[in-house]
Recover the amino acids of this structure.
């Protein structure tokens, strides 16, 4: 009955829940835009790339088991460079959280709450997410433990219901004159799995055991399987032409389902309510990461953590209000994606290389000594 | 000696104004008159305090017995204390030398006899039903066990009925309650630790646990929290425990209150701790969690598949209790397009002529339901049934016919009420009833989105609750997968080889059960 550390299975759910975010609504459209009917292959390859970058993140976290990412950055980079790097990561995560909520709220406005002001929905979502972070990591772990299986089940249930309308011919031709596009889309596809990097924030609180790594990989694999399957089903149901006209193809997929019992008229509205949990899970985990970044960046003592948590609300609100057109939010994020690429493909491998080299030197110096 | 006597005599006169801290330091003196007067002073000349003076058999030495007639067994006092002392004789008494040990061992045939000197011990003993024997010339007395409360016999559980389980419930007498547990749990490691609580009115309470199963840190934690309680008096176990729970302001019960001995025994076997208090027909079990509060004794008397389905139905009942009125309002006011057209039409038709919006209708009906439930509890059982007939049928029907509420709203509220009765724990049921109101407000302001946000906030709140260090949602988490077998579902009994791991029992293995066909023999 002590405060238990996160066990390997809980790590898996946290990583999965952090990765399965608002992208679930838009991923088929984005992949179709990038690689047409072969978008799912890019997504699969992007997932494999994430498994590699995720492994690097795991190695880095494992090298500093009592530190989280911002602390590692300060430890390696020193006060100035370390804080500069935290600033980059912090800005990225803030933008990610804020725009994820924005995208989801836009979907809610279309499918559920067409008369409610957008800022009310954003404010309420941020407040509840802030409340979760305020209650601490253990509480967040429990909440994710409960919501995650339900949300994943609904995703696969939706796919199952959509199967009768799927036509495999719409996936063809596979890789015909499209290899370049598929390859080009791998890196953007891997950016759908940002949540894998959360290991750098949670490893500090995890119980260290040999089984942690397989569970961590399982945690990345669940979203990969979910996204790839969802993309395949959506392409099979709508075809690439129709998908490229849909903002939220997944919700439209639900709309297209011919539910045998007409208990609910608009299943997509129902799903929009249900999938608040998916966005919420990812939101609170990134919110936590953002709070940690802020605390280390500004050297905020633990006793003022609540200030850092609630201080996020106005910042998230301002970012959320900056752009009113959801398409511009969706399309206008290459800068954010560029920062993400720099962090995932540049910074983390660099830090891992540096740490391993330093450790090897330390060992050889010790053996010489 | 005389000076001391004089001094003490002066102090005695002030006994009437003394509180427990002050008289606690005084001791018996050699004069029984003084002792009797002191005791009467301390007890404020209570009418049920009885004193009988007499000469010890075979000597002229005066003695007296003092007891409270309403809580002592007068027959026992007559037969086993007074009669031997007045009529029978022993060698030591005949010689004029009184050996307290001799009287204790040879003359008084009570269960427990102890030598006392201070008024602190004496007052506490007398108020518990014991009898004081004081003898002229001796500054010590004998406190003889003569408790004889009048109490009701063991009856059926009133608030936790069971179809197939045992039909015994706790009563108000601690001794009988201990016996009810002891009879079911023939384990020499079953510990009953007796303590007292209260500054003015001392109450006996017992901490019950199985040594070697219950985690020693949990036992110490409960003892520590109880030991720092400094209150005048404590009427019930639940009140006492609610003062020491992790979050006293929480509307959700963080302790389990039960009147069923079999539930206590099951909890003790899992590694939990129970607390019993004299005068209370209930036991409090700690720690507790939400899934535990959703369990019923009957779950364990049925096939595991049946029991699991019933448990899940109960879970649905919890959601319906808290959410159905809110969801009805959200759907009708914000998202009528979510429902099939025919249903929307029939709802609209039923609401024709109702002057209030659905929100006001719901609040009116919820409030009426609460009044009816409260009236049903307060009134005698026979009249209570009349209230439910008048309330449910007559008022409901009349309200619909008068056009104040719609028939659909009556149906919604009725289903909500029925669902609330499926919650096995009364306190949890009350919390869920209270939770309805904020959900209704969220539904009327933000529709289904508001309800979803309220659910998330509620989930976060519940996930943050702890009962004596144990998370309130255990075992619904990935921390202890082996505990899932007895959570939302009830797994087969043969599969429950381990005690709940979340409780960190000192002996984690409950059974080594081999299924048919896998027996080694």
């Amino acid at each position: 009955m002590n405060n238990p550390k996160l066990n390997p299975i809980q790590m898996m759910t946290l990583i999965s829940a952090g990765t399965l975010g608002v992208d679930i609504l838009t991923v088929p459209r984005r992949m179709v835009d990038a690689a047409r009917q072969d978008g799912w292959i890019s997504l699969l390859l992007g997932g494999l790339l994430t498994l590699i970058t995720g492994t690097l993140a795991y190695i880095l976290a494992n090298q500093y088991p009592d530190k989280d990412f911002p602390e590692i950055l300060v430890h390696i980079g020193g006060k100035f460079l370390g804080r500069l790097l935290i600033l980059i990561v912090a800005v990225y995560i803030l933008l990610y959280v804020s725009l994820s909520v924005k995208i989801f709220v836009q979907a809610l406005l279309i499918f559920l709450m067409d008369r409610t002001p957008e800022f009310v929905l954003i404010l309420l979502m941020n407040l509840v997410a802030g409340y979760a972070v305020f209650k601490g990591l253990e509480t967040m772990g429990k909440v994710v433990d409960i919501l995650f299986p339900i949300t994943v089940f609904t995703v696969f249930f939706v796919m199952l219901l959509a199967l009768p309308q799927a036509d495999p011919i719409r996936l063809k031709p596979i890789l015909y004159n499209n290899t370049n596009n598929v390859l080009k889309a791998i890196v953007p596809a891997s950016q759908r799995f940002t949540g894998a990097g959360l290991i750098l924030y949670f490893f500090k609180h995890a119980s260290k055991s040999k089984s942690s790594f397989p569970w961590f990989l399982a945690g990345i694999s669940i979203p990969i399987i979910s996204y790839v399957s969802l993309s395949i089903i959506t392409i099979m149901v709508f075809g690439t032409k129709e998908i490229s006209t849909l903002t939220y193809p997944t919700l439209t997929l639900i709309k297209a389902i011919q539910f045998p019992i007409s208990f609910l008229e608009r299943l997509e509205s129902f799903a929009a309510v249900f999938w608040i949990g998916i966005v919420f899970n990812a939101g609170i985990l990134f919110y936590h990461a953002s709070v940690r970044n802020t605390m280390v960046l500004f050297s905020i003592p633990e006793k003022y953590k609540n200030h850092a948590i609630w201080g996020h609300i106005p910042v998230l609100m301002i970012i959320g209000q900056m752009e009113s057109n959801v398409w511009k939010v969706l399309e206008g994020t290459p800068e954010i994606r560029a920062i993400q690429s720099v962090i995932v493909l540049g910074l983390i491998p660099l830090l891992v290389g540096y740490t391993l080299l330093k450790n090897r030197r330390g060992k050889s110096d010790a053996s010489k000594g | 000696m005389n000076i001391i006597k004089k001094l003490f005599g002066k102090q005695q006169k002030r006994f009437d104004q003394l509180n427990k801290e002050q008289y606690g330091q005084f001791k018996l003196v050699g004069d029984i008159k003084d002792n009797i007067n002191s005791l009467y002073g301390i007890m404020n000349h209570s009418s049920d305090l009885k004193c009988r003076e007499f000469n010890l058999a075979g000597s002229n030495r005066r003695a007296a017995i003092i007891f409270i007639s309403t809580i002592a067994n007068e027959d026992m006092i007559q037969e086993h204390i007074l009669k031997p002392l007045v009529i029978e004789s022993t060698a030591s008494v005949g010689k004029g030398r009184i050996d307290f040990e001799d009287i204790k061992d040879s003359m008084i045939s009570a269960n427990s006899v102890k030598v006392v000197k201070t008024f602190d011990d004496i007052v506490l003993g007398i108020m518990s039903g014991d009898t004081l024997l004081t003898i002229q010339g001796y500054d010590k007395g004998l406190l003889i066990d003569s408790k004889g409360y009048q109490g009701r016999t063991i009856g059926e559980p009133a608030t936790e009925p069971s179809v197939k389980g045992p039909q015994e419930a706790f009563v108000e007498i601690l001794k009988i309650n201990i016996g009810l547990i002891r009879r079911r749990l023939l384990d020499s490691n079953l510990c009953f630790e007796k303590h007292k609580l209260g500054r003015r009115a001392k109450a006996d309470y017992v901490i019950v646990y199985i040594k070697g199963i219950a985690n020693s840190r949990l036992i110490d934690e409960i003892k520590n929290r109880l030991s720092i309680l400094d209150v005048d008096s404590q009427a019930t176990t639940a009140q006492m425990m609610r003062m020491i729970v992790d979050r006293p302001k929480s509307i959700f019960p963080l302790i389990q209150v039960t009147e069923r001995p079999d539930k206590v025994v099951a909890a003790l076997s899992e590694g939990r701790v129970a607390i019993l208090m004299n005068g209370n027909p209930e036991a409090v079990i700690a720690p507790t969690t939400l899934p535990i509060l959703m369990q019923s004794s009957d779950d364990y008397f049925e096939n595991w598949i049946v029991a699991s389905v019933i448990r899940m139905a109960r879970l649905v009942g919890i959601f319906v209790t808290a959410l159905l009125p809110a969801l009805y309002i959200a759907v009708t006011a914000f998202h009528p397009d979510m429902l099939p057209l025919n249903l929307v039409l029939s709802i609209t038709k039923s609401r024709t002529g109702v002057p209030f919006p659905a929100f006001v209708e719901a609040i009116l009906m919820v409030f009426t339901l609460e009044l009816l439930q409260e009236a049903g509890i307060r009134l005698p059982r026979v009249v209570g049934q009349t209230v439910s007939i008048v309330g449910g049928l007559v008022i409901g029907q009349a309200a619909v016919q008068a056009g104040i509420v719609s028939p659909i709203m009556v149906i919604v509220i009725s289903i909500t009420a029925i669902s609330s009765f499926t919650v096995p724990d009364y306190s949890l049921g009350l919390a869920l009833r209270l939770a309805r109101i904020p959900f209704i407000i969220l539904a009327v302001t933000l529709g289904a989105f508001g309800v979803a946000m309220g659910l998330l906030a509620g989930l976060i709140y519940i996930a943050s609750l702890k009962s004596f260090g144990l998370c309130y949602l255990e075992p619904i988490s990935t921390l202890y997968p082996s505990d899932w077998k007895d959570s939302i579902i009830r797994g087969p009994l043969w599969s429950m080889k381990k005690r709940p791991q979340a409780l960190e029992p000192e002996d984690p293995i409950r059974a080594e059960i081999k299924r048919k066909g896998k027996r080694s023999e």
DSSP finds 18 helices and twelve strands in chain B. The interface with chain A takes residues 215, 217-218, 287, 334-335, 337-341, 446-450, 452-453, 456-457, 459-461, 463-464, 468-471, 473, 476-479, 481, 502-504 of chain B (CB under 8 Å).
